[in-house]
Automatic annotation (TrEMBL):
Source organism per UniProt: Microbacterium rhizosphaerae
Leader sequence segment: none
Catalytic activity, EC: 3.2.1.21
Keyword Lipid biosynthesis listed: no
Protein name: Beta-glucosidase
Family statement: Belongs to the glycosyl hydrolase 1 family.
Reaction(s) catalysed (UniProt annotation): Hydrolysis of terminal, non-reducing beta-D-glucosyl residues with release of beta-D-glucose
Pfam families assigned: Glyco_hydro_1
GO molecular function, one term: beta-glucosidase activity
InterPro entries: GH (IPR017853), GH_1_N_CS (IPR033132), Glyco_hydro_1 (IPR001360), Glyco_hydro_1_beta-glucosidase (IPR017736)
Length: 465
């Protein structure tokens, strides 16, 4: 099981999760600053104020990447560092930081893959309505232009949004992510405005840069359970997957999505010309995959199950279907997040995307796992569970390529243990351990395993660690 020489091996992080320096050099507050500083919103009251201090340690961090042989690094740019108030004055110090980071990567032979938005909306824009407001779209398109003009000659690939499903449904409907709102109609408005912001940003990026352009979606791989499960799967597929691929890749929202959510909104926020703007050619479709989900129609008896992998936060991530569809527990094994381990789901997803969009190039932009690993007596982190997880998922990706999927690369999540959103520092996804007291970095066995995979491009025989 060898990967072709053209296949890109990388790792990924997000700005708020690793950078720290929350108030440094002109950076403005984001919705995650506000949310994490609100009592009860994150585990142990953890915040991203310091995180991994990547803002000050970026040079040694990219030395670490180079030492592992990473060919690409997928990072996000913090909108509040560039335009602290969301629109208007540009903070040159913020642009300078990312310029240094990009130049440092290029000097070490690492391709910069930059995501414009990984959930850290400037708080000023949220105060004006956030993603539920159409005004945020224009601000995002202008921010995309600013960044592209500054870095577009050196970035290898742009990503507009990371997981807009999370931004819309968890941020505005379920309430477990910033800004913590529980308004079903606002969540669906956010879906549309994020889609529109993506399309307008693609246009701005292409006008200012010759780099490839992508978007990253977290696809839900669904299983049905029991009588009527086909309709349950259809409903959740519409909300989770086709609400984004429909307008982005086909130029229309699915009719069943509109019908399923008619009791929540009339979709009057969709204006003439919006769908034309949203549907823009993509060089790459980014695919994030972690686990599967099992759904069925609720029979109205007993307590409804909500095992969708997210902590209860008072609202719903499934507007229009939250009283119809229940998420049921799946068989293990599980990661420390409680997510089931199902590498075959990745193969299924990639093959399905090829069948739906046969001309679309794909890339795994996130895959990884949190486990409760720790430093052993020998001073190392023997994270055998993560090594096994990664080996099996890379094998699943390879199987999809054997089935004809045009898969161009794979980014392991995450390079570093970091601030895991509402879970604070309680969950460790990194292939490199971070001691959050000293901020010392320690590559785990999984990092050494990954370095060997990159060097040999082979999953056979079992690689040493």
């Amino acid at each position: 099981m060898r990967f072709p020489e053209s296949f890109l091996f990388g790792s990924a992080t997000a700005a708020y999760q690793v950078e720290g320096a929350a108030g440094a050099d002109g950076r403005g507050p984001s919705i995650w600053d506000t949310f994490s500083h609100t009592p009860g919103k994150t585990w142990n009251g953890d915040t991203g104020d310091i995180a991994c201090d990547h803002y000050h340690r970026w040079e040694s961090d990219i030395d670490l990447m180079a030492g592992l042989g990473l060919q690409a690094y997928r990072f996000s740019i913090a909108w509040p560092r560039i335009v602290p108030t969301g629109r208007g004055a540009v903070n040159q110090a913020g642009l300078d930081f990312y310029s240094r980071l990009v130049d440092g990567m290029l000097e070490r032979g690492i391709a910069p893959v930059a995501t414009l938005y990984h959930w850290d909306l400037p708080q000023v824009l949220e105060d004006e309505g956030g993603w539920a407001s159409r005004g945020t779209v224009a601000a995002f398109a202008d921010y995309a232009r600013i960044v592209a003009e500054a870095l577009g000659d050196r970035v290898a690939m742009w990503g507009t949004l990371n997981e807009p499903w999370c931004s819309a449904y968890l941020g505005y409907g379920q309430g477990g992510h910033a800004p913590g709102r529980t308004e079903p109609a606002a969540a669906l408005a956010a879906v549309h405005h994020l889609n529109l912001a993506h399309g307008r940003a693609v246009q701005a990026l292409r006008a200012a840069s010759d780099a490839d352009v992508s978007v990253t979606l977290n696809f839900h791989v669904l299983r049905g359970a029991g009588e009527g499960s086909e309709d349950a799967v259809r409903r959740i597929d519409a909300l989770a997957n086709r609400a984004f691929t429909g307008p982005m890749l086909r130029g229309a929202y699915p009719a069943d999505l509109i019908a399923d959510t008619a009791s929540v909104t009339d979709w009057g926020f969709v204006e003439d010309g919006d769908l034309r703007d949203i549907r823009q050619p993509l060089d790459v479709l980014g695919v994030n995959y972690y686990s599967t989900a099992t759904v069925r129609l609720w029979d109205g008896t007993g307590e409804m199950q909500h095992a969708d992998g997210h902590k209860a936060a008072g609202g719903t991530a499934w507007p229009g279907s939250d009283s119809v569809v229940e998420f049921v527990e799946q068989p293990g094994p599980y990661t420390a997040m409680g997510w089931n381990i199902a590498p075959e789901g990745l193969t299924e997803l990639l093959v399905s995307l090829k069948e739906q969009f046969p001309e679309q190039t794909l890339m795994v932009t996130e895959n990884g796992a949190a486990f409760d690993d720790d430093v052993s007596a020998d001073g190392k982190v023997h994270d055998e569970l993560r090594v096994d997880y990664l080996r099996r998922h890379f094998a699943a990706a390879h199987a999809a390529m054997e089935a004809g999927v045009d898969l161009r690369g794979y980014f392991v999540w995450s390079l570093l243990d970091n601030f895991e959103w509402g879970y604070g520092y309680a969950k460790r996804f990194g292939i490199v351990r971070v001691d959050f007291d000293t901020l010392e970095r320690l590559p785990k066995d999984s990092a050494r395993w990954y370095a060997e995979l990159i060097r040999t491009r082979s999953l056979e025989p079992a690689l040493p660690v």
